[in-house]
Write a structure and sequence with these properties.
- This protein is of the alpha/beta class and 259 residues long.
- The protein has a domain of 122 residues: 3-Layer(aba) Sandwich (Rossmann fold).
- The protein is globular and about 55 Å long.
- Bound molecules: adenosine-5'-diphosphate and magnesium ion.
Length: 259
């Protein structure tokens, strides 16, 4: 039987030595649900996303994807990267700075993971890459090198690459913060299209209008904790905590977009 929640994060904690970065972060995502994670720079948003697929192994808590504990072998020992690979393949991640392989074509960038992790044959992976690139409206760039694309196009390739893994969950970490303003729209509209397909997502973003439109729920983080969470419109229109009020006010004054 399928688990009730697609993603269940319970009591997540992360410390670097004595520096505690995440404290008791808990939330759950149903199938097809979209959560936006907002909060000031340094509040732990990236660490939280990276902990979900064990890019940053958490120091406390439990993460379950479809009921299966991520990173846990059941005997208390940490999984190796090799053991983690199939679990990570279920989670597509899109970073602020794209992280495409500069020496590989767009096609190779998108088809590499499915070939490595899912063992898909080269010709099939290549056709899948074309299909995923069509979803981000870049099928005409399939044989281009990443360096010849705009930042917005590179980010769309990174999204196609995440989709090619056939993940159950997509994680976006500030996918538009590194882009020139005129390129932000094309990336947000691709993410909106994916949201329209009912894909489950956790989005870290400072684009509040976008979060309102795309997210079912918003979590506000500050100081490594979830300070407030709720349905997107409620939380944005009727913030309760002083910190969230202050944060939203700073954004509407044109505050920092990085983080
Ligand atoms: N590798 C690391 N070692 C030590 N501290 C880190 C490391 N990565 C992040 N941090 C600290 O964790 C806190 C949260 O960072 P981060 O998750 O990047 O926040 P956000 O994405 O909300 O801006 C910051 O204080 C940052 O300095
Ligand atoms: Mg960050």
């Amino acid at each position: 039987m399928a688990a009730e929640y697609l993603l269940q994060v319970t009591g997540l904690g992360k410390a670097y030595g004595h520096h505690t970065v995440l404290t008791d972060v808990s939330f759950a995502l149903t199938r097809g649900e979209r959560i936006a994670l907002i909060g000031p720079s340094g509040s732990g948003k990236s660490t939280c996303l990276r902990a979900i697929n064990y890019l940053e192994p958490p120091t406390a808590g439990d993460i379950r994807l479809d009921g299966k504990a991520i990173g846990s072998r059941g005997d208390g020992r940490r999984m190796s990267d090799l053991e983690l690979a199939p679990q990570r393949a279920e989670i597509g991640m899109v970073f602020q700075h794209f992280h495409l392989w500069p020496h590989l074509s767009v096609r190779a960038n998108v088809s590499l993971q499915p070939r490595k992790v899912r063992g898909i044959a080269r010709s099939q992976a290549s056709r899948m890459a074309e299909a995923m690139l069509a979803k981000v409206h870049l099928d005409h760039k399939v044989d281009e090198m990443p360096g010849r694309l705009s930042g917005g196009q590179q980010q769309r390739v990174a999204i196609a690459r995440a989709l090619a893994q056939q993940p159950k969950l997509l994680l976006f970490d500030e996918p538009t913060s590194a882009l020139d303003p005129e390129l932000v729209g094309e990336v947000l509209s691709v993410i909106k299209e994916l949201a329209g397909e009912g894909r489950a997502m956790v989005l870290v973003t400072h684009e509040i209008a976008f979060a309102r439109e795309v997210a079912d729920r918003i979590l506000f983080m500050d100081g490594g904790r979830i300070v407030e969470q709720g349905p997107a419109k409620d939380l944005l229109d009727n913030p309760q905590s002083p910190r969230l009020k202050q944060f939203l006010a700073s954004l509407s004054r044109g505050g920092r977009r990085d983080g």
